[in-house]
Write a structure and sequence with these properties.
This protein is α/β, with parallel strands linked by helices. The chain has five helices and seven strands.
Length: about 220
């Protein structure tokens, strides 16, 4: 049985991935900031922490002994929707960077011993961070600049994580989930959460150490940086 840790498992893509993995027989450890996940299953375990709270993340990690085969950094926020490069909510910008860039890195740091256990036992472990094409340098635009910047930054951070962990057999992947009908993507988006989740699961299943550090779409096609 493969064990996945998914942050932000309470709704949207995170919830869809959680349900799909449980349905196929995997074990899921899912995190929420607060409350209870809308999931009831023998193979599901909830952790409660905010990805901005380093102490809470470390406490949650220290309470686990099991190896984690796959860590999925899914939790994130859009931030100020009206911000542009010349119309800036600086406090909102800083919050987006804290959640979307430092949050995934905090989670990797805290749960790295569990990934190393899996790599030692099985020869490999994986990290997937849900990014966005909006962070790509080939996607010009000024709207939602805090979100765009955070995704460009997390891409670079995780590229560095990939370089550092490659020698340990821990592969790292960045993904664009598509335009998805969630609270963030809106009701007019092209994909359902289930469709995006299924694609993302296929992508992380196919990840090997040879492709570590890559940036791909939910359907597996390569994305330009």
């Amino acid at each position: 049985m493969t064990t996945y840790l998914i942050t932000g498992c309470g709704r949207g893509i995170g919830l869809a991935m959680t349900k799909a993995l449980l349905e196929r027989g995997d074990r899921v450890i899912g995190s929420l900031r607060s409350g209870s996940a809308p999931v009831t299953h023998d193979n599901f375990q909830q952790l409660t922490f905010d990805v901005c709270d380093e102490a809470a993340i470390n406490a949650a990690a220290s309470g686990l002994d099991d190896p984690i085969n796959v860590l999925i950094n899914n939790a994130g926020i859009m931030g100020p929707r009206t911000s542009s490069a010349l119309e800036m909510d600086f406090a909102g910008f800083a919050e987006v960077l804290d959640v979307n860039v430092l949050g995934p890195l905090r989670v990797v740091h805290a749960f790295l011993p569990h990934l190393r256990k899996a790599a030692s036992k099985h020869g490999s472990a994986k990290v997937m961070t849900v990014s966005s094409q909006m962070g790509g340098m080939t996607m010009p635009g000024s709207d939602r600049i805090a979100y765009r910047t955070s995704k460009a930054a997390v891409n670079k951070v995780m590229q560095g994580v990939a370089a550092d962990l490659e020698k340990e057999g821990i592969a790292v992947l960045l993904t664009h989930p598509g335009w998805v009908r969630t609270d963030m993507g809106g009701g007019s988006a092209a994909l359902s959460p289930d469709e995006s989740a299924a694609g993302l699961i296929n992508v992380v299943d196919a990840l090997t150490i040879e492709s570590t550090g890559s940036f791909v779409n939910w359907d597996g096609s390569e994305r330009p940086w």
